[in-house]
Design goal:
Blueprint lengths: L1 H7 L3 H6 L1 E2 L8 E5 L2 E5 L5 H4 L2 E4 L1 H12 L5 H10 L11 E11 L8 H9 L3 E3 L8 H7 E10 L2 E10 L6 E7 H7 L7 E12 H13 L2 H15 E3 L14 H6 L18 H12 L1 H25 L1
Length: 314
Amino acid sequence: CIDTLKCTLLMGDLISKMVDCGRCLHYDRRLSYENVSLKLPLPDRYSEQGICLEFSSHGLDYFNSYLDSFGVSFKSWLSMVRALCFRGYALAFTRLDYAMDDICTSGARSTISLKRVINAVQNGEMCCKARVWSDQGDDFKRLFSYKNSRKRRNGEELEGLTLQLGARQSEQICRFYDKFTEQKMKGNELPDCSSWTRCEFEYKGGNAMAVVNAYIDYSDADFAEYMAANALNFVRFVDRTSDNVSRCKVKRWWKCFLNGATKAVKFNKVKAAKSAFMRFSRGFKKQYLRKFYTLIECWGLEGAVDWLVKSADE
């Protein structure tokens, strides 16, 4: 696995710079450099657990610049990772975060805001795949986790808020939060920015793999459209004109934020499992390899292959 990362996936120079950060959750060692982490299991658990490669958002920025030195894009590199399925590797993308931002310069009007989102939720103007609650009472509070954070910076009292839609264990979660306030809490100055609202989706398991496949196979424009359509499929904010919220028109600000998306799209579910080739390979070895080896002993490899080709043609 390590040799494949170093050579086939071009990470040799990066791994040589990584520092051993000790143990971490579920893994024996964690190596890290520039927010790119490589998590290694105990030696006797490699075949069962494998290794974990993890990028933070800053780590992903660094890795993109690292790949530029090889003349390789991140999308091409991910294609190389996916191609490992055909070399007997079992791959799983365990988690992926995708963010959509509404960033406004001074004097501009924002498209989306936390206030608009919260008002729509409280007014029953939301249609959501994760809805397992009534519009009133404690059931309503369980679905949304409001995370308040307060901090004083340069004499200004700052209060951050995160609104989360969906359960932690589900394969898809949606969050809305004030990125502008978060940046100010960290001491980052944004002189030309008046507001910054982020809508962030967290994907796991099959959904994460579906996003990766779409990112590799689609153009950047088609991928953005695909992700906006999936966001529309997961949650819609509507003008309440009917008791059946699914029949109501999408609010103009939500449609505008999703770049005019009108058609909802569901992910093509992909199992976090072995590739079709790997499943065939194991089945072939288990059922037919002994018989095919008998042909090779009788006719030689060339004769056995000729027989196989003729049988396939028939």
